[in-house]
Each structure stands twice: as C-alpha cells, then as structure tokens.
Amino acid sequence: MIKDLCTVISVREIADSIHEMVLEGRLADEIEKPGQFVHIRVGAGIDPLLRRPISIAAVDGANSRFTIIFRSGGRGTDLLAGKKPGETLDVLGPLGNGFSTSMLKAGDTALLVGGGIGVPPMYGLGQKLRVKGVRVVSVLGFQTERSVFYQEEFHTLGESYIATVDGTFGRKGFVTDILTEIGLDADVLYACGPTPMLRALEAGCYTPETYLSLEERMGCGIGACFACVCRTADSQEDGKGYKKVCSDGPVFKAGEVLI
C-alpha cells in the first residue's frame, strides 16, 4: 500500500450516472490482485472529510495506469466525476484482499457474476483469467438498459449474458435466472454486487467453490476504524469472530462471513 498523487488521464460517463476514470501513477505498479480497491480523497480540504473507496476495474501496467468505475450521486462521487484530465488525485492503495486465481489452470471454467456497480472488478478478473487460459463466462445484472455498461468489453473475454430487472436489455430478471437457464458446469464462481444478489448466489451452490466480494461503507479503508466489520459464521458475543471488509476482504469465500 502506498499513497500516490495520481494524474487523471480521462473521465467519461459510460452509462446513467456511471463514470469511467483512467488514472496514472506509480500506484498502478503495486496492484497485484483483481478485486482490490483504492481510497480516494475527492476534495482539497476537509469537506468531504472521508476518502471514497472505489474498486479497480483494470490495470495497464505497461503505462502505469489503472481504471476505476463508479456511480455518482453523492457529494463525494459528484466531485470525483467532475475532475478533468490533467488534474491530480490523492490516492491510497491498493487496498484489501482481492480474488485468488491460483486454484485455476488452463482449460478450467470460471463463472463471473456482477451486479450493478459490482461489475467493474469482474472485468479485471476476467482479463487475468484469460491470460491463464481459463474459460471465462460472465453473467451481469443491471436495473435497466440505461445502467448497462461494459457489455462489449466482457464479450471479448468470452461467453457473456446480461439481465435487466425491467427487461429493457438482455434477459428480463436477475442473474440467478440466467444461471438456472444456462446450467453451466463451472469450477469456480466469483461475484461482486448488492447483498441480496450475493446471498442468492451463496445459497444456490452453483459451483464447487464460490468467492464473494462485499460492498460496504468504509471510513479509513485500512482496518483501523472498525466501520466495516461483518460477523463470521462462528462469531461470539464476546466480540470474537468478526472480519473487516476493507482489510480482511472485500473478497471472502462463501460461508466465511454472514451476509
């Protein structure tokens, strides 16, 4: 983990209130696993006071650049969306434990499931898996056509499906509807998205191994403030059996923590 002053290379709105930002800095050289995140100071002063945790969507190590994708709508993310190319951002990272891919080998099949703003880290994961020769199948869920993004990028990784709740794009319904429909025999499932989606995936037991990336509000991002703790399956009233999403996660094996 380092603190770096990263330069904004580009900013663009890729869906309704969804923004893609490319940053350049030595921090890009420190990113080891897909699923890690950065903590960004969005203002010059103390308002907003807290940094904003944003997942890393892709890394371009050759050019010391990385891509983040976020949804605007609050004061902090609105300020972030308003940044211009050439401006700099105070960025802390990479943070958290990302997705492990060591158990997969060439020819294995990985199922990537993303929901809403949980989609971005799945893209970087898919890129890494493809380099290993792993077959990638992506299932993405959104509310409506206006919120769909990166559909073409995921298509380049392999077989991909999209579901929207209102049916305005792809299949109508949820990611679990698609999983039931395709009946894929995959080796590992990786997922990031809203808690109800993660609960459904955990309960579905779609693959022998499932890894879930949790979304949680954070204060410090380094495990010091205890703002993002979650209970483990064997948690006790004496305070034992808790995990911090920012430092122990955000990726956990299914069943490791209560969601």
Shape: globular
Number of strands: 15
Low-confidence stretches: none
Distance linking N and C termini: 27 Å
Arithmetic mean pLDDT: 94
- Structural class computed from helices and strand pairing: alpha/beta
Radius of gyration: 18 Å
**Which H/E pattern describes the elements?**
EEEEEHEEHEHEEHEHEEEE
**How many strands, what sense, and barrel or not for the largest sheet?**
7 strands, mixed
Spatial strand sequence of the major β-sheet: 10-9-8-7-11-12-15
Helix content: 10-25%
Strand content: 35-45%
Number of helices: 5
Task: Please tell me about this protein's structure.
16% of the residues lie in helices and 36% in strands. It is an alpha/beta fold and 259 residues long. It has a 7-stranded mixed β-sheet with strand order 10-9-8-7-11-12-15, sandwiched between helices. The chain has a 6-stranded antiparallel beta barrel with strand order 1-2-5-4-3-6. Strand 1 (2-15) and strand 2 form a beta hairpin. The two termini are 27 Å apart. 43% of the residues are buried. The model has no long low-confidence stretch (mean pLDDT 94).
Please write out the topology:
Layout: E1 2-15, E2 18-24, E3 37-41, E4 52-60, E5 65-71, H1 75-81, E6 88-95, E7 109-115, H2 120-131, E8 135-142, H3 151-155, E9 158-164, E10 171-172, H4 175-182, E11 188-192, H5 195-204, E12 209-213, E13 229-231, E14 242-244, E15 251-253
Parallel strand pairs: 7-8, 7-11, 8-9, 9-10, 11-12
Antiparallel strand pairs: 1-2, 1-6, 2-5, 3-4, 3-6, 4-5, 12-15, 13-14
